[in-house]
Write a structure and sequence with these properties.
Layout: E1 6-16, E2 21-31, H1 37-49, E3 55-57, E4 70-73, E5 79-85, H2 90-99, E6 102-107, H3 111-119, E7 130-134, H4 136-142, E8 149-157, E9 160-165, E10 168-177
Parallel strand pairs: 1-8, 5-6, 6-7
Antiparallel strand pairs: 1-2, 3-4, 4-5, 7-10, 8-9, 9-10
Helix pairs in contact: 1-4
Length: 182
């Protein structure tokens, strides 16, 4: 018998001070059986911190090699932003940079490991790809507070993340790093 995805209903009050984005998001996020909570939370935060009109989670799910986990499309369906999560291959980012006007990667993988992988192969417009690093300890601290129906407030201000769930306030750092080591 195949395992099924776990569906989370997340109500997020987003205050992204750094980008001037303030929204109330009502999200349904499916966690695939092979997906860790850390990865799912990275995907959730990537969605919220990249929020723009036309944003959507991949219809094909996280296992798709051809689609990003999150994308932004204009009303005609044109791919504007490819938002990846985790530690994709250099080849995948190369394809993404050719397919979309903007590419961003959200990861909690150690930066040196990512930069070593990305430096080993050519990546189209590598200097314009945004690499956002989340602290693994922050994601691990957040995980026990997430249940199948969760209301949370997410604030980004000057690179700091603040997540409030009930009476709990968790703080972490979101760091922008170069894709390639300098």
């Amino acid at each position: 018998m195949a395992l099924t995805a776990t569906l989370f209903h997340l109500q997020v009050t987003l205050s992204d001070v750094d980008r001037g984005v303030y929204e109330a998001l009502d999200l349904r996020v499916a966690q695939h059986p092979s997906e860790s909570m850390r990865y799912m939370l990275t995907r959730l935060l990537a969605y919220c911190l990249s929020y723009a009109e036309g944003i959507a989670f991949s219809k094909a799910g996280i296992a798709s090699t051809d689609d990003p986990p999150i994308c932004v499309r204009d009303p005609t369906g044109l791919l504007l932003a490819w938002i990846d999560v985790g530690s994709p291959s250099a080849e995948r980012l190369h394809r993404a940079a050719k397919a979309a006007r903007q590419v961003a990667l959200y990861s909690c993988t150690p930066l040196a490991q990512l930069q070593r992988e990305f430096g080993s192969r050519p990546i189209h417009h590598s200097d314009s790809i945004e690499l956002w690093h989340l602290e693994p300890a922050f994601l691990d601290a957040l995980a026990p507070h997430i249940d199948r129906n969760t209301k949370l407030e997410l604030v980004r201000n000057e690179g700091q993340l603040y997540v409030t769930i009930g009476d709990n306030v968790l703080e972490g750092t979101l760091t922008r790093a170069p894709l390639l080591a300098t």
